[in-house]
Amino acid sequence: MGLIAGWKGYSLVDKNISSLRFTGKIRDSLHDTIPFTEEEKFVIDLPEFQRLRRINQTAFTQYAFPGATHTRFEHSLGVMHVAGLVLNSIIANQKRLLSALEAAYLSTPKHICENLWEYEKSNGALSTTQKALTYLEQSVYLSQCLRFAALLHDCGHAPFSHSGERFMMTWKGFESQLNTLDIPTWLNKALHKKISKLKKQLPNYSEISIRHEVYTLLIVARIFKYEYEFLSEKMGQDICSILDLSVDPNPESDLAKSGLRNLLHEIVSGEVDADRMDYLLRDSRECGIVYGFFDLGRILDSVGFYYNAKTSQYHLAMRRSGVSAFEDYLRARWSMYQQVYFHKTVTACEAMLEHVSKTLAAFTLPIQIDEYLKLDDHSFIPYLKNLYHNNISEYLNNILDDLVYNRKLWKRVYEEFIPKTSFRTTPSLCPAIVGFLKELNCPSEIIENSTNLTRFSPKGREELSKNNFKIIIKDVHSLRYLEPVENHSTLINRIDEEVIIRRIYISRFNENLENIQSEQIQKKISDKIINPDEN
């Protein structure tokens, strides 16, 4: 219990401010107890969700950290729980904030209050959030929508989690099959809208693969088809709307009427979201390391929300006192990517899977949900071998066995770390090395990763911030106003810590199944490419 000491005792059951009625609870290694509603139990018991028990949370990380055998199943339960904690915290914190503001207005000169209200028109308003707060506090429907969105946010993951996404079809291929799918009209319309937007934004649209989020939308639409309100198609549409802003909320629902869709989206999938807060703590615990620790309790005590009058949207905010915990959270995420998710052993597995995907270039994961749901970490390799039983070579068969069954991994022969600040001006040796390896008949792959502290935009010359996340400041009159997050966190402007990591891995054998000695290859690379003048 040492990991969760920072927020031990903060229970959804004891401090449930929303109107949800919990009917049971699950013991969890990270959060202690996770309560659930009757509707949540129904969805958790469905095969579509139970499949997540057979998909590892961190794919091949267990090859470097043996304890990392946890799955998307428990992570998804944890995200639902944390989303509920965030919602309860926002309600409690916002009530206190609005009460304090009301008292401050009574004791503050009128012209100062008027200046603040004018300031809020351009920078976001805290004073006009009472109506939205009432919705959050009283609408059981909104609370259940949020928790369902958090619970199901990963239900579309491929085998081997993110690693398996390299087998997904392109957006162009998906577009050609979209109208063959048995999906509701509202989802068909949303996906066509998403495709049109991508075509305009991305010149290489036809080469970009879809991601697991598309399958998530298809699965959610498949699950929510019952007459009961909390399992209806209307709720399915609103859940998809929270998960993906391309989907419009049902116009007759509390989600549409309240205007809170963006706020709930940010709770599930933003820069300070329930997804990251659970997986950082959970992955750290299961890997047996300390890199992902941060003070969740302090963040929960600091979150609130505001209204942007220009866009008519609500967004997350945080009190100034929570910035240190927020920065610890950013550091934890950065460290986990550096030390765990981009570990050299983990990326060796990525290289092998990348080689398989290139060798079987015609193969893509099925888009029909009945077929897709049959695939998980245990069934994928047998499925692939059966599909290509007449064509798969012994060479490729051995690579698959080495990856999944034997843990005989490819070897790293070169790596480079290039700061993003000099990315365009620093020459890479990778193309020359890969060309040289081809001459040696040595199969290889380049795996590239990038690390950054946050996706928030750094402070620039623009008058207005590009970031929706704001910091709540208390002035000498006890009034509260909003300032850009980049004005209060130096980490957001630390572009010097953003690094491109490239690693080259080679196979243990060539296509003729002749053994390859990595030490000899490394020496040849050094003599021929890296230090040619010394020979």
UniProtKB/TrEMBL annotation:
GO BP annotation list: dGTP catabolic process
SUPFAM superfamilies: HD-domain/PDEase-like
Residue ranges of every copy of the HD/PDEase domain listed in the record: 68-289
Stored InterPro entries: dGTPase-like, HD/PDEase_dom, HD_assoc_2
Gene3D superfamilies named among the record's database cross-references: Hypothetical protein af1432
Any one GO molecular function term: dGTPase activity
Protein name per its UniProtKB record: HD domain-containing protein
